[in-house]
Amino acid sequence: MADILIVDDDDKIREVLEIFLKSKKHNIMVCENGKKAILLLKKLPKLPDLILMDVMMPEMDGYSATKEIRKSITKTVPILFLTVRDSNNDLVTGFDAGGNEFMTKPFDYVKLDQTINKLLSSPNESRIKGY
């Protein structure tokens, strides 16, 4: 069981991901854009074990949010981009921003589950705030 933050502006995507991840016994938090995710992460006493990040969102996109998260909140919590954008340039931009994995929507649930399990089982330094 892991604590997972879903950051996506699409209500249906957030709902589907939340239902799927809760069925896998994960604890879920949700935000509808990058700016709100950063505010939430700064308030939490313990960081989530994983962040699922959309790319195209109002107020602050996923790339900008990830850069800010990596700069001022944590370098160690894995970030999985889930997006409709699928060009090589998008992939490179995601990794340059600090993402760990990149999956395109619509996603296959088996592959999503395997990717999440891989990210959660990879050795990570402390997920306590302040690096």
Structure overview:
It is a single chain. By secondary structure, the protein is of the alpha/beta class. It has a single domain (3-121), classed as 3-Layer(aba) Sandwich (Rossmann fold), CATH 3.40.50.2300. Helix content is 44%, strand content 18%. The protein has 5 helices and 5 strands. The protein has helices spanning 11-23, 34-43, 62-72, 88-97, 109-121; strands spanning 3-7, 27-31, 50-53, 79-83, 101-104. A 5-stranded parallel sheet has the order 2-1-3-4-5, sandwiched between helices. Strand 4, helix 4 (88-97) and strand 5 form a beta-alpha-beta unit. It is globular. The model is unreliable at 125-131 (pLDDT under 50).
Which keywords apply here?
single chain, 131 residues, alpha/beta, Rossmann fold, 5 strands, globular
In CATH, the architecture is 3-Layer(aba) Sandwich
- For the record, the count of structural domains works out to 1
Looking at the structure, the CATH topology is Rossmann fold
Count of alpha and pi helical runs:
5
* Sequence of secondary-structure elements: EHEHEHEHEH
Taking the alpha carbons of the first and last residues, their distance comes to 22 Å
Q: So what's the overall shape?
A: globular
Low-confidence stretches: 125-131
Radius of gyration: 13 Å
Look at the structure and give the mean pLDDT.
90
Number of strands: 5
Structural class: alpha/beta
Largest sheet: 5 strands, parallel
Strand content: 15-25%
User: What is the helix content?
Assistant: 40-55%
CATH class: Alpha Beta
Q: CATH homologous superfamily, by name?
A: Response regulator
